[in-house]
Amino acid sequence: MLTRSGTPLCATVCVAAFLTFAQHAVADDTNVATEPSNDREAATDKPAEVVEPIEPAAAVQPTQPVDVETQVAPVESENPVEPASPAGADPVTERRGGFVVGVSGGLAFGWATGNPSGKSDREDPTLERSTGLGIGHRVTPFLGGALTDWFTVGLGMTFGRASKKKYETPVTSFVFHLEAFPLYGRGGFYRDVGVSMDFGAGVTTIVDADTSNNVANSGVASTIGVGAFWEPLRAYHFAAGPYVGYQHNWSRWFVRNNITVGLRLMFYGVQP
Question: I want to staple 117 with a disulfide (CB 3.0 to 4.6 A). Which of 130, 168, 217, 239 is the partner?
Answer without folding.
Answer: 217
